[in-house]
From TrEMBL:
Gene Ontology molecular function: any one: exonuclease activity
Cited Pfam families: Metallophos
Organism: Pelotomaculum isophthalicicum JI
InterPro entries: Calcineurin-like_PHP, DNA_Repair-Maintenance_Comp, Metallo-depent_PP-like, Mre11_N, Pesterase_YhaO
Domain Calcineurin-like phosphoesterase: 7-211
Name the record gives this protein: DNA repair exonuclease
Length: 431
């Protein structure tokens, strides 16, 4: 049964009213983040949602899908709920319905204000999967099925509850879940890709994973749009939503649209071949401006990683050098609310001009340590032992609030940094 052509926007993980608490504590003197920059960040989740609404109206889509975590916390702020209502009202005025599920951050057990949403909005129940038709000119063009979270930790495979209705023209499943145990995200509503593919839906509109991912391009299309605005320095690059076009034959074409008013970026700068401090400063500055140009001039919050081997390493490891470098760069970069380029931090991961592989083969304390570092990067048993050791610190009631379990890449970086530190402390510069 053909649906006729249709278009919709698929977005998720708005996290309205994200607080950026770590950055808020940094607002003070001594070159810390200016209040105007923080204000722009605090409004960025609202501005990103407004950009989603603008896209829907500009493209004259048939409907909007929001796949969970509309709000940042279960006890949603009044400000967030009002701004959400305002955006949905703009859609309603344009005749565009919206279909919404709530996820682990904004589950249905949390507090909500008595605010009436437009009749064009359907919030899916947390009791069981519901299905709602999408009607255009008196004809059903699609059906949306979805379920919200009753509480934070949903361990059931919710995809097993979905079933395509008979005679549905274009069937969409709206679900906040983790497909295949994607790392870095809680394994809520866990499922496998095969669980979704065999359900007979035409499009799975997913949320929860903050990186954009098309898990199955077609037959059916299974997609995460990612979050529309990065919430912390690890959520780098373009963030946005998906515009989905469906042909009369139910073929699906997905197009990404950037919605984030502020970009987080991680910028790596090598010290190799750099002989003096001013050249390093200018190289960092130039690279930051090139990143912002590539982002279309959007405001950027950047972290700089200094890496590579070179003669400047001896300067970079001096106490307070990195902090002084940050302050000097901040004085050179724009800090206006509309076009800031804010340097969050500089991390030094440089090395002296030595060959650690050669040193690892020497019969010395340093050689033994570097040999162990090399082994730790490839030996799974040793990796497991290292994670077990780190767990005591990560699970500490105070320290654990600032730490997460490192993935393989992060563990490799920590081992590399440990090897570099050992060279700095133990190598006497002689063969």
């Amino acid at each position: 049964m053909g649906s006729g052509s249709l278009t919709f926007v698929h977005a998720a993980d708005l996290h309205l009213d994200s607080q950026f608490k770590g950055l808020e504590r940094a607002v003070s003197g001594d070159g810390r983040m200016p209040d105007c920059v923080l204000r722009r960040l605090r409004n960025s989740s609202f501005d990103a949602f407004s950009n989603i609404v603008d896209l829907c109206i500009d493209k004259k889509v048939d409907f909007l899908l929001l796949a969970g975590d509309i709000y940042d916390v279960a006890d949603k702020s009044l400000r967030a709920q009002l701004r959400f209502r305002d955006g949905l009202a703009r859609l309603a005025d344009a005749g565009i319905p919206a279909f919404v599920v709530h996820g682990n951050h904004d589950h249905c057990s949390g507090w909500r204000a008595e605010i009436k949403l437009p009749d064009t909005v359907h919030i899916f129940s947390d009791k069981d999967v519901e299905s709602r038709p999408v009607v255009r000119d008196g004809r059903e063009i699609a059906s949306v099925s979805g379920i919200s979270y009753p509480g934070r930790a949903v361990v059931e495979n919710y995809s097993s509850r979905f079933a395509r209705g008979a005679g549905t023209p274009f069937a969409i499943a709206l679900l906040h879940c983790n497909v295949g145990g994607i790392e870095g995200h809680e394994n809520y509503a866990p499922c496998r890709l095969d669980d979704l593919l065999r359900k007979g839906f035409d499009y799975w509109a997913l949320g929860h994973v903050h990186n954009r991912a098309i898990l199955n391009p077609a037959g059916p299309c299974v997609a995460y749009p990612g979050c529309p605005q990065g919430r912390h320095p690890r959520e780098t690059g373009e963030k946005g939503c998906l515009l989905v076009r469906v042909t009369e034959n139910s073929d699906v074409a997905v197009e990404f649209f950037s919605t984030a008013p502020v970009r987080w970026e991680s910028v790596a700068v090598s010290i190799e071949g750099i002989a003096d401090d001013l050249t390093l400063l200018e190289n960092i500055e130039d690279k930051l401006f090139r990143f912002r140009a590539a982002a279309g001039g959007k405001p950027i919050v950047a972290r700089v990683l200094l890496n590579g081997r070179g003669s400047l390493h001896k300067n970079l490891v001096r106490a307070s050098y990195a902090e002084n470098l940050v302050q000097e760069l901040r004085s050179r970069l724009p800090a206006a609310e509309e076009d800031f380029l804010w340097l969050d931090s500089v991390r030094v991961a440089t090395s002296a001009e030595v060959d650690k592989n050669e040193l690892a083969d020497t019969d010395t304390l340093l050689g033994d340590f570097l040999s162990l570092v090399k082994k730790g990067r490839v030996n799974q048993d040793l990796k497991a032992e290292l994670r077990k050791t780190l767990a005591a610190l990560i699970e500490h009631p105070r320290a654990g609030r600032y730490l997460t379990v490192p993935d393989d890449d992060e563990l490799g970086e920590l081992l590399e940094a440990a090897g570099d530190l050992a060279v700095d402390l133990l190598w006497d510069g002689e063969e």
